[in-house]
Design goal:
Length: 261
């Protein structure tokens, strides 16, 4: 597999992102119900990306991609497909970089997320489902010359999400295991790479919902797999397929993928 992340590249990406993203805090999760579920002496720490710009980790990847676009590509604008969080991040990134965004979202997307995209200046198209959304965004790319900013795939996206993993191991240097949710796998791919490069003995677990288990199926098959339909209330984890680069990083650096109901 080519273009593997390095710690040097991850640090350079974080420096390039600068103040366009923030270093989010970590917090010890102190809860009696949790304490009953884990072994005595276990300390659970949350990396609170809800305090990131736009409210999720997504600007890390979107900006890592868009900061490398030439001026003429930024002038033509970008496009994206998303149930919400990535679309919001791309709208934000387009605004701060002087570009424009046209995002495609399923009709079932949370109305707040749709409104937030529009508030940030993006044009929004609503389609029947995420499968149709991927087809529509290809058409926009071809017809309008916009650059497709993928929600979870590619080396630049992974370097962006890897900045989160590097922050975590620097903030919690004695971390022994990291648990990362998986939608398409871009977050898990980057975080797992950073964690394993910085702390090779640390375990990394990816977590998927049962109704959107494309990465678990991909691990079993040994290659990226698609699912016929997405059936989960966790709409941000409802990717219809795994993709080669993020799958390759997850396969290399993730110790186990776990399903939750």
């Amino acid at each position: 597999m080519s273009d593997l992340p390095t710690l040097e590249a991850i640090r350079a990406t974080r420096a390039r992102l600068g103040d366009l993203v923030v270093t989010t805090p970590v917090r010890a999760w102190d809860d009696p119900a949790l304490a009953r579920q884990v072994a005595p002496g276990t300390r659970v720490v949350l990396k609170e990306e809800l305090f990131q710009r736009t409210g999720t980790f997504k600007p890390r990847g979107a900006l890592a991609v868009m900061l490398e676009l030439p001026k003429d590509a930024l002038a033509r604008g970008v496009t994206a497909v998303s149930a919400g969080n990535h679309a919001i991040a791309v709208a934000y990134a387009a605004g701060v970089l002087g570009s424009t965004a046209k995002v495609v979202m399923p009709r079932t997307a949370n109305p707040y997320r749709v409104a937030k995209c529009r508030e940030l200046g993006a044009a929004v198209e609503l389609v029947d489902d995420v499968h149709v959304a991927f087809d529509r965004v290809k058409q926009i790319e071809a017809d309008e010359g916009r650059t497709f900013v993928h929600p979870f795939e590619g080396p630049r996206t992974a370097l962006g999400t890897a900045t989160l993993g590097l922050e975590l191991v620097e903030q919690v240097p004695d971390v022994e295991a990291v648990i990362v949710p998986i939608g398409g796998g871009g977050l898990c791919a980057g975080v797992a790479a950073a964690v394993k490069l910085a702390r090779p003995d640390c375990r990394v677990y990816g977590v998927e919902p049962e109704g959107a288990d494309s990465m678990r199926r991909s691990f079993a098959a040994g290659s990226p797999q698609s699912i016929g339909s997405v059936r989960t209330i966790a709409d941000s984890l409802g990717a219809p397929h795994a993709a080669p680069y993020s799958f390759g990083l997850c396969r290399r650096y993730v110790d186990e993928v776990v399903l939750v109901s």
